TrEMBL record:
Record-annotated Aldehyde dehydrogenase domain positions: 34-492
Enzyme active site: E262
Organism: Salipiger thiooxidans
Protein known as: Sulfoacetaldehyde dehydrogenase
Pfam family, one: Aldedh
GO function terms (MF aspect): oxidoreductase activity, acting on the aldehyde or oxo group of donors, NAD or NADP as acceptor
Family affiliation: Belongs to the aldehyde dehydrogenase family.
Keywords per UniProt: Oxidoreductase
Length: 498
């Protein structure tokens, strides 16, 4: 077996060959009895066959995690943290190969997306690696003749279920705190993008006891459902769609185990008349995640711009988008890659068609589709701006998960806050203003778990992140996530003898 943590410069093609048809169980690549095709979305051709883990293979991964659990939990917390941080550095050292693999399986551009994603994933391991000694309990002044205290214990085997859009960051947001807290993990990779996940997990496994990190690949209906229902899984952490999130929550409820959910979003961006238009245009570009083809739960996909700025904003955003390079994800010139698959592309196009069929609506397509013999044109979707839609239009209410931003005008501040809050989701929101009173008022009134003013930061390791309403349950990132979601609190009361 190639030791991927020691190879000086990994080759993504050989990593693909190594992981074809494999799960990672008990520190080893284990061939699956069944296979699933994983396509390169940019070419439409087969990238490699991935494992399609059966119930028995999923059970074997949980058994390996369970076996590793007692020894891992018994290690001093700082030693666990040091091992996790070392794995982060090893992943950073192989970042180019991992980023290329990620670009090949997701269609995301190497330069604008994949390199950054690997860097954040490695940083999350280093961040949580330093927090081992923060697994503190409390002492309680209950009775001077008694010692009353709480301790933090690991939960056991954690199931971490991943989507395809930012698999490595979402993987580390789950498994880094879980591992440092003394749990062992079984990752369910996305069937669309399992290979970079496997490669990172294998690098991690070189720094951890065998079985501490396991990965199963396959469909949600097979290995995903088997994993969530498994009696030895003590915690489920899921990122994905709302419907699957409900099924996962039900599976947890049947066993009475904790479940954290990061689901969808339709995040508002409110631009006031006094905002700095240069910053707003750049904020809309980054906030809408156009370089990720808008495939982001946090995308600022409802942009409410004050009527005084709206025409100038649309013109400038359109000009910026027209100039962006859409193309081969591995080409250094490319800023925007492809949609993940044909099903997702069809969904996006059906929403655009509904906007086009709406009287009074304006649909602005930006940029140019790439031409090239090696590229498959179907999954390159143009950045699209939708104007003039009623607030109850599906393009305004639904998560499209594509490069489609709705732009609405406004003139009444209370009305725009109400429109921003009129959503089943509550993941994120941004407000753009130079007025401190407006900023403070809006942050208090917006119904979202992550509210920012005059900026549109992505997930940061030490900043709590998570949604309200249908956007999910529980926070990820930060010390809080490790303590609240990956430990259980035990209360101990001791009497003095005599
Ligand atoms: P998805 O819900 O289709 O799949 C997510 C994962 O769940 C996959 O690994 C899938 O195989 C698995 N799965 C499917 N059925 C299952 C079942 N019955 N039991 C257990 N696992 C099952 O989501 P997706 O299409 O991969 O990702 C896109 C979605 O993810 C979007 O809705 C997006 O908003 C959401 N998302 C949310 C966040 C966030 O932080 N809030 C971040 C990224 C993506």
């Amino acid at each position: 077996m190639t030791n991927h943590s020691l190879s000086p410069l990994l080759d993504p093609s050989s990593a693909l060959a190594d992981f074809a048809g494999m799960n990672l169980i008990n520190g080893a690549r284990v061939p699956s009895d069944a296979r699933l095709d994983v396509l390169n979305p940019a070419t439409g051709r087969l990238l490699a066959e991935a494992a399609a883990a059966s119930v028995a293979e999923t059970d074997a991964a949980v058994a390996a995690a369970l076996d590793a659990g007692a020894g891992w939990a018994a290690m001093p917390a700082r030693a666990r943290g040091k091992a996790v941080a070392a794995a982060g550095r090893a992943i950073a050292a192989q970042s180019e190969a991992i980023a290329r693999l990620l670009a090949m399986e997701t269609g995301k551009a190497l330069r604008t997306e994949c390199r950054g994603e690997v860097a954040v994933a490695a940083d999350l391991l280093e961040f949580y690696g330093g927090l081992g000694s923060e697994l503190k309990g409390e002492t309680v002044p209950y009775n001077p003749r008694m010692l009353t205290m709480t301790t933090r214990e690991p939960l056991g085997v954690v199931a971490a279920i991943l989507p395809w859009n930012v698999p490595l960051v979402l993987m580390m947001l789950k498994i880094a705190p879980a591992l440092v807290a003394g749990n062992t993990v079984v990752v369910k990779a996305s069937e669309e993008a399992p290979f970079a996940t496997l490669l990172c997990a294998e690098i991690l496994s070189h720094h951890l006891p065998a079985g501490a990190v396991n990965v199963v690949c396959g469909t949600g209906a097979d290995c995903g459902a088997a994993l969530t229902a498994h009696p030895d899984v003590a915690k489920i952490t899921f990122t994905g769609s709302e419907g699957v999130g409900q099924a996962v929550y039900e599976a947890g409820a049947k066993k009475i185990v904790p479940v954290s959910l990061e689901l969808g979003g339709k995040s508002p961006m409110i631009v006031c008349a006094d905002a700095n238009l240069d910053k707003v245009v750049e904020g809309a570009l980054s906030g809408m995640r156009f370089t990720r083809q808008g495939q982001s739960c946090t995308a600022s996909s409802r942009i409410y711009v004050h009527d005084d700025l709206k025409d100038a904003f649309v013109a400038r955003l359109r000009a910026r988008l027209d100039a962006m390079v859409i193309g081969d994800p591995l080409d250094e010139a490319t800023e925007i890659g492809t949609i993940i698959n044909a099903r997702q592309a069809a969904t996006i196009r059906s929403y655009i068609a509904r906007a086009e069929a709406t009287p009074g609506a304006e649909v602005i397509r930006c940029g140019t589709r790439p031409a090239g013999a090696a590229l498959s044109p179907e999954l390159f979707e143009l950045p699209t701006l939708l104007l003039g839609l009623p607030e109850d239009h599906p393009c305004v209410t639904d998560e499209i998960f594509g490069p489609v931003a709705v732009i609405q005008g406004w003139s009444d501040y209370d009305d725009v806050i109400a429109r921003a809050n009129d959503s089943r989701y509550g993941l994120a929101a941004t407000v753009w203003t130079r007025d401190l009173n407006t900023a403070l008022d809006a942050t208090a009134r917006l119904n979202a778990g992550y509210v920012q003013v005059n900026q549109n930061l992505t997930i940061q390791p030490n900043v709590s992140y998570g949604g309200f309403g249908r956007s999910g349950l529980g926070k990820e990132a930060s010390l809080e996530a490790m303590l609240e979601h990956f430990t259980r609190k035990k209360t101990i009361v001791m009497s003095f003898d005599g």
